[in-house]
Design goal:
By secondary structure, the protein is an alpha/beta fold. It is built from three helices and twelve strands.
Length: about 210
């Protein structure tokens, strides 16, 4: 903060310089604190392939109940993987139907090292909730998949029904398909949607190959 303080009559030059130095120091400290606060929670480290198996229980303990006023929070890659795990394996969740999930940080899915497992992977395990990306970016998602299944879906969200996906941006996506089955539904953001699923203000950049 490079601002000069002009003092009133009766103050000498030395006093004015001391005032200026004190203000400059205070300003620099304030700026450092502001930068620290602004950076907190905004960027997550690259994914190590792990799943936060206690994510849902931790959210409940924290008082998050999945309402629009108090959504479940996804704050890192392990939490996002936990959302996929809960959707794909836990029938009691019913695909997070009528529940709200908020992404609170940019994520790096570290696709050079780890494969992503889609959120919602079959008819019995569709994603049915509302996912708000908060304007954040998910980078380096990699799904390279070979299958003999007759019907399967690939994407950040594999299979959704009556869901809302909004305000999330994917970059450097790689989707590679090698299929001997009959039907593949694949995309960067979503493989297949049914019902009244809505996609609002989302974007995807990357590559997709199929053989």
């Amino acid at each position: 903060m490079n601002v000069r303080i002009w003092c009133s009559a009766g103050r000498n030059l030395a006093a004015a310089e001391r005032t200026y130095a004190q203000m400059k120091c205070t300003g620099l400290i304030f700026l450092a604190i502001l930068l620290l606060l602004c950076g907190t929670g905004s960027v997550s480290a690259a994914w190590d392939g792990n799943v936060n198996t206690s994510w849902y229980a931790d959210e409940i303990t924290a008082g998050h109940n999945g309402t629009i006023q108090n959504p479940y929070l996804v704050h890192d890659e392990e939490s996002l993987a936990a959302l996929a795990n809960q959707t794909n394996r836990n029938t009691s969740q019913n695909g997070f139907s009528n529940k709200y999930i908020l992404l609170t940080a940019d994520l790096d899915l570290n696709g050079n090292t780890h494969q992503w497992s889609q959120i919602g992977n079959k008819t019995a395990f569709k994603f049915k909730g509302s996912f708000n990306g908060g304007g954040h970016t998910i980078t380096n998602m990699n799904i390279t998949y070979a299958s003999t299944l007759e019907y399967y879906r690939l994407g950040l969200f594999g299979y959704a029904e009556g869901a809302t996906i909004r305000d999330v941006h994917l970059t450097d996506v790689v989707v590679g398909i090698k299929c001997t089955g009959e039907i593949v539904c694949a995309g960067g953001l979503m493989g297949e949607s049914r019902g009244s699923t809505k996609i609002i203000n989302c974007s995807v950049t990357g590559t997709m190959t199929a053989e």
